[in-house]
Amino acid sequence: EVRQVESGGGLVEPGGSLNLSCINFASGSTFKSFHWSWVRQAPEKGLEWVSGIDSSGSTSYSDSVKGRFTISRDNAKNTVFLQMRSLTTDDTAVYYCVPGLRRTGYSPAWLEGQGTQVTVSL
Hints:
Structural class: mainly beta
Strand order of the largest sheet: 2-10-9-4-5-6
Largest sheet: 6 strands, mixed
Distance between the termini: 37 Å
Low-confidence stretches: none
Oligomer: single chain
């Protein structure tokens, strides 16, 4: 059963931009009541929290992406977005969206989508 789909990743040069989307197939009332986060996993590293948005639309960011990334949500479309600008090679990772605003201690077992690969390279 597919529960959510992340998309929008790709190969981009340093300094470039990408826009990620995550559509979740929960009911509309369930989606809009949840807080959502984007997390990422770089090669040979653990899951890292990147950004979160609560059910009222308040946002938060890790220090590594603050000022470069923007998270948003469209409850009518059950979708969470991540606009990424000024990308660096350190942003190379698979990106996932997850429910909640937890900042640490993520387990791969909690991931529901397949993620979307972001590669920043010349």
